[in-house]
Amino acid sequence: RLRVHVGQGGRYEHFEVLAAGGYARSEIEVTLDEGAHFEFGGVTIGGGSKRQEFVTRTIHAAPNATSNQVVRAVHWGEATGNFLGRIEVERDAQKTDAAQNFRALLLEKGASANTKPELEIFADDVQCAHGAAIGQMDEMAKFYMASRGLAPEIARRLLIEAFVADAFVAVSDLALQADLLDKALAQLEEFA
Question: Most exposed among 62, 94, 147, 178, judged by the fewest C-beta atoms under 10 Å?
C-alpha cells in the first residue's frame, strides 16, 4: 500500500509490473493539490492460477490537477488480472483532467480480466474519462506478420510487446522504460 500527497504544481509518476507469485496486489492512493499531476502505468502478466491486481484511488482535491492511468493485462491458463480504479473530484477541483484506460489480452480460454472504474465527480468544469477493453489476440495481425515471413511465435511476441509497452509510454527514461518492458515480457517464457 502506498499513499502519496502531491503538493501544488508537483508531479508523481508510478510504473509497476505485477508478475511474481500466486497473488499480487498493489494499492495506491494519491491526493492531488492545485496543478499537480499523477501518472500511472501498470502491467499484470502471467499464467497458471495467478491473480494480480492494481487498486488505485486518485483524489483531485484542488483545481487544475491532472491524472492519467494506463493498465495492461496479459494472461493465460487460469490467471486473472484486475484493475479497480477510483477517481474522486472534490467540489472545488474545477478544471480537473483525469483519465483511466484498461486493456486486457487473454491468450488462452480460462484466463480472465476484470475492471471496475469509478468516477465520483462533485465539480462541474472537468474532463474525466475511463475506458476498458478485454479480448484475444488479433489473429489477422498474426497472419499478416506471418505472411511477411515472421515465425508465429515471433509475431505473437511482437504483438504482446507493443500491447504491454502502452503502459510505459510516459516513462521519459528510455533505459527504465526498456527495463520495465523486459521484466514484463520475461514472464512470456512460461507461455508455450
Answer: 147
- Contact present, 55 and 27 (Cβ < 8 Å): yes
Distance CA 94, CA 3 (A): 23
Using an 8 Å Cβ cutoff, are 152 and 123 in contact? no
> What is the Cα Rg of the chain in Å?
18
Question: What backbone phi and psi angles, to 5 degrees, belong to 41?
Answer: -135, 125
Cell, residue 138: 488479433
Cα–Cα nearest to 39, from 183, 185, 177: 177
Which among 65, 124, 130, 76 has a CA at the least distance from the CA of 103?
130
Paired strand residues for 16: 42
Checking DSSP bridges between strand 51-60 and strand 80-89, what pairing results, if any? parallel
Using one digit for the tens of pLDDT, what is the confidence trace for 22-71?
999 999 999 999 999 999 999 999 999 999 999 999 999 999 999 999 99
